[in-house]
Amino acid sequence: MLDHGERRRFIRMEARCKMRCRIPQSDEEFTATCHNLSGAGVMFTTDRPVEVGKALEIRIEPESAVTPPLEAFVEVLRVEKRDGEYAVAAEIKGIKG
Fold first, then answer.
1. HEC profile of the chain
2. Where is the PilZ domain (predicted)?
């Protein structure tokens, strides 16, 4: 059932899968775990700090081969350190492809 108190434009879907992050104009890449995804954003955890405002290129790899990977450009909105890792909320700015 939908919570009418929820003010988000898009519903978040649980999406526990691996993802890769790359800093544009750089060879720097790191891995992360996607936790949820919506039409507007993504929440993931990683073992390295990420700066708020940083632009990233991401590739989310679904566990099923039937679903193609999602490649997108995102901007980091929020970072929280939790249990030795970083929870990152990012806004999707564009879909690659």
1. CCCCCCCCCCCCEEEEEEEEEECCCCCCEEEEEEEEECCCEEEEEECCCCCCCCEEEEEEECCCCCCCCEEEEEEEEEEEEECCEEEEEEEEEEECC
2. 6-87
9-61 pLDDT per residue, tens: 677 778 889 999 999 999 899 999 999 999 899 999 999 999 999 999 999 99
Q: How far apart are CA 97 and CA 87, in angstroms?
A: 27
Spelled out in words, what is the top-level CATH class assigned to the domain 13-95? mainly beta
State pTM to two decimals.
Answer: 0.85
pLDDT interval class at 65 (50, 70, 90): confident
